[in-house]
Structures are given as C-alpha cells and as structure tokens.
Amino acid sequence: MNEKKLSEFWNHRVEKQYKHYLGTEFDKKHEKYVDDLTNNFFNHIDFSDIDIALDWGCGGGVGSSLLANHGEVVCLDISEQSLTSCRNLLEKNGQKIKSEILLNNLTDFSIDFEIDLIFCASVVQHFPSLEYWNSVVEHWRKINPEWIAIQTRHGEENKDNEEEYFQDTKNYILALYLTSEEVLGKFSDHYELKYHKLNDDKYSMYEYFVFKKKH
Ligand SMILES: C[S@@+](CC[C@H](N)C(=O)[O-])C[C@H]1O[C@@H](n2cnc3c(N)ncnc32)[C@H](O)[C@@H]1O
C-alpha cells in the first residue's frame, strides 16, 4: 500500500462533506453527528481517568473539539488539510491542541505522550485493507491507553476493498467492513467492553465500541 496515495486521494478526490469539515455540506449533519458521538461515546467514558486523548483521524475536528472540553487532545490525520481544518475549529472555539501528528507512514508512527484515550470515529471504514487495520491495532495496543473508543463499519464478514480502493470515492469512503467479533477479539484480552451499539442508518451499518483497560 502506497500510503502517500492515501493522503493524496483524501485531499484531492474526496468531496468536502465526507471530510466532516464545517462550513461545507457537512453542516447539515453536524448536529446529529454530535448527538451520535455523545450518545455512543462520550456518555460512556469516565473522563476523570483521562488527561490526554488521541483523536486518530481528526478530520474537521468535531470529535477533537468535544474531547478538548474534557482534557488535552492530540490530533492525528493523514491529511494536512484535515489538521488545518481541525486547528481552525478549535481556535474558533477558544480551545487548544496539545500536539498535531501528520501520519505519512504507519511504520514511522511514534508518540511522545502517555495517552489515556484513543478516540477514532468515522475513520476505520476508510482503511485500505485488513492488514492496515491490524497494523493500526498493533500501534494502539503499544500505546496502551486506559480507554479506547472506536467506530467501525459493520459487516457479516471481514472484507477489505484493496483492489478497487482508489477507483472512486465510494469505494474509498466505505472500504473496510469488520465483524463485531473481529473488533472484540482484538481487545478483549486486556480490555473490558463498556459500551457496544450497532446502528443502521440505511446507508451503512456502523458499530460503536468503548473499551476500558482491565486492572
Ligand atoms: C470522515 S472524517 C472523520 C473525522 C472525525 N474523526 C470526525 O469524527 O468528525 C475521516 C478523517 O480520517 C482521515 N483518514 C482517512 N484515512 C486515514 C488513515 N488511514 N489514518 C488516519 N486518518 C485517516 C481523513 O483524512 C479524514 O480527516
């Protein structure tokens, strides 16, 4: 997988409303999206445990801004445009970003902070392959946060889209399906499941998971 192509495609081929940038057609969905994040993530996380959150795939910053209400936030994305858009939103809201990470290549990923929460909303479905998902999970497990909140695109079987990935936006936007067992199995040794929800929005089946480290 050519990871440079991932960010190029996102920057130049994907329409702005899919990027969750405020000030675009995404505005119409913003309020409902905040409700979804609140009901499926924020209401199930104990933020007294959390000093620093890592927003993996921060996009236009909707999640980062909500996270910044509870503590410090590190924003990561493969797209410089997304990081800029996220920075602008938080500045506008009078909030600060602790650190920004432009992820050029998964193998070079490193982080200088202890992370208490990994937050990843509307991103895993854009991953190009099961192999890529496995590598991201390895990084998340090394980070070893107290909490993990992720949303995935649900499938009856695991299915990636590597062959057709760059052919058009839809293939890219809805690329990776994961079963519930796939996600639960990745974390169940060290984490307990605090919340789990499968949502069918008639476009796709989205699945939410909130995990807390076992002690
Ligand atoms: C639909 S937006 C979601 C943004 C934000 N998480 C939210 O909930 O509003 C998807 C973001 O994920 C980023 N992204 C896509 N593929 C990624 C990858 N492999 N790793 C990290 N971020 C990725 C895109 O650049 C984009 O900013």
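^ S-adenosylmethionine complex. The longest strand covers residues 191-200. The mean pLDDT is 93.
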